[in-house]
Structures are given as structure tokens and as C-alpha cells.
Design brief:
Strands 1-5-6-7-4-9-12-11-10-8 form a 10-stranded antiparallel beta sheet. It has a two-stranded antiparallel sheet with strand order 2-3. Strand 2 and strand 3 form a beta hairpin. The protein has one domain: Thiol Ester Dehydrase, Chain A (Roll), CATH 3.10.129.10. By secondary structure, it is α+β, with helices and mostly antiparallel strands. It contains 6 helices and 12 strands.
Length: about 290
């Protein structure tokens, strides 16, 4: 049985120790489009050689940044073909600004498995501690596995965050590069869905798609730059649901509303009439 909730839920994966350097942060932020205006001082803050400011979304790649193999969806009680899997949602809470270089230890557990009928959703939570033992960030992630539902589990919550009924406070467009996914995969996500046309076709897509976490990082950066004066240290948390695909070379439109100490955000694809890319996006301001 590919999914056994009785075994999987609550299972804790082996702790992972890892380290990162300023060059890793620079490459990650270049892969999100930082430096597109190469003489802009605000952009160059992301690419400083000694102390680049670090977007909180770097937390999603830090532990696997140097991976060179395609990921596997293999946990206690969970064994799923990678071609069936897409990212469902991602949330990062940062407990202090992320350092430009450091060492850390992450511990992950499977917190929930939901039965959506034709698909299953596997939710994991990760706690990351710095070298001194103090918390750096906590993340919560879900994957959507097509064809793996129907095992009789709970359907899980279905929540939607309404957007204000007014024009956004900020409306940002960000072009992506045709080679954006090939660049982003250098940050450790070697899933062939983002680089191999034959694999993408077999998975049901007409061409390789942009990593959901790349879109996630691009949108976070757009919000930081537009609404937080380019200061990534003001972000306490960032969460989003992956609502649709983005193809490399398309343009992202990020609409941002200020509301009660947070930013509500919607991101869509300009070339496809603002087809949703991310939904239920919330940036919590420190």
C-alpha cells in the first residue's frame, strides 16, 4: 500500500545537519531574479559578497541546497511515484532573521495525511535549530499525490482567505526567464518535472514547469520590495497555496493588500489572463 496513515502520521524522519555559505544565498536569490536591475542598490543587497540580506524563503532550500539527485517521496508509511506529486502548500515562520551563512539541524515529522478521494495530501512539519540550539525557522509543507486517495481517511480542512474588495495597494509584474527552472534547480531541487520534457509530458504537462517554490520565492521578494521597503528582516512568516502552474518565460503578476499587520497577496500569470499561480498567500510582518 503506497500510503499507510497508521504508520505515517506522527512519524519522525532522521534529523538532518547542514550548512550554507553566502554564495548559496546569492545563487538562490539570483535564481529568483535578484539583480535583474544590476546597478540598483536595493537589488544588490541580495547579492552582497559578505552579508547579503536573506529572504526568509531561503529556508525552503537550505537543507537540500547541494542535492544533485532527484528527490524521493519515501517516508515511513508513504511510498509515492515522483511523477504523481506536486507541491500543495508551503509555510515558513522565521524566529529571527536568517544569517547569510551558518549551520543548522532540522527535524521533520509527518503531521497529517488527508484523503481527497482521487488524491492524497501529505503534510509535514519541520523545526530547524541553529548551531547554538536556538530556533531559526519552522516550516509546514504539503504535497498533493494524484491517484493516491481513497484509503478512507479524513478529507482535511478546506480554507480560503478572502481578498479585500478594493484595488490592491501594490500591483507588481515580474517576468521569468525561459531558463528560470534550469537555474532554480541548481538550488537543490532536481525533480525532472522542471527540466525534462519527456518526464513532464508523462506527468501530464505540455512542457517542464517552474518549481512552485521558485514562484513562492519570487512572490515573496516582490512583496518585500514593493511593500516592505526592500527589508527582508521585516518578514515574520510567509505562506501560500500552489494554485496553478507557471511555465518558464511567463510573467507573474503579484497583487498586494495591506491588512492588520500582514500582507494579503494573489499571484497569477499575465499571459493566461491572470490564471492563479499562488492563492491564500499571507506575509506576516514582524
Amino acid at each position: 500500500m503506497p500510503i499507510d496513515p497508521a504508520v505515517a502520521i506522527g512519524a519522525e524522519l532522521p534529523s538532518q545537519q547542514f550548512a550554507w555559505e553566502t554564495s548559496d544565498v546569492q545563487l538562490y536569490q539570483l535564481a529568483l531574479g535578484a539583480g535583474a536591475k544590476p546597478t540598483d542598490k536595493a537589488e544588490l543587497k541580495y547579492l552582497h559578497d559578505r552579508e547579503p540580506q536573506v529572504l526568509p524563503t531561503f529556508a525552503t532550500v537550505a537543507a537540500t541546497f547541494h542535492a544533485t539527485e532527484a528527490p524521493k517521496v519515501s517516508y515511513p508509511g508513504v511510498e509515492i511515484d515522483l511523477a504523481k506529486v506536486v507541491h500543495g502548500s508551503q509555510e515558513v515562520t522565521v524566529h529571527r532573521p536568517l544569517p547569510a551563512a551558518g549551520k543548522a539541524t532540522s527535524t521533520t515529522r509527518i503531521s497529517d495525511i488527508w484523503d481527497k478521494g482521487k488524491a492524497a495530501v501529505v503534510v509535514s512539519e519541520t523545526t530547524t535549530l541553529g548551531e547554538d540550539g536556538t530556533p531559526l525557522w519552522t516550516s509546514r509543507s504539503s504535497i498533493f499525490a494524484r491517484g493516491e486517495g481513497g484509503f478512507g481517511g479524513e478529507r482535511g480542512p478546506s480554507e480560503s482567505i478572502p481578498l479585500p474588495d478594493r484595488a490592491p495597494d501594490f500591483d507588481v509584474t515580474t517576468p521569468t526567464l525561459p531558463q528560470q527552472a534550469l537555474l532554480y534547480r541548481m538550488c537543490g531541487d532536481r525533480n525532472p518535472l522542471h527540466s525534462d520534457p519527456d518526464f513532464a509530458t508523462a506527468a501530464g504537462f505540455p512542457a517542464p514547469i517552474l518549481h512552485g517554490l521558485c514562484t513562492y520565492g519570487i512572490v515573496c521578494k516582490a512583496a518585500v520590495d514593493a511593500a516592505l521597503d526592500g527589508d527582508a528582516t521585516r518578514v515574520a512568516g510567509f505562506k501560500a497555496r500552489f494554485a496553478g502552474v507557471v511555465f518558464p518565460g511567463e510573467t507573474l503578476r503579484t497583487r498586494i493588500w495591506r491588512e492588520d499587520g500582514r500582507l494579503l497577496i494573489a499571484a497569477g500569470v499575465v499571459e493566461r489572463d491572470d490564471a492563479p499561480a499562488l492563492a491564500d498567500v499571507v506575509l506576516t510582518v514582524a
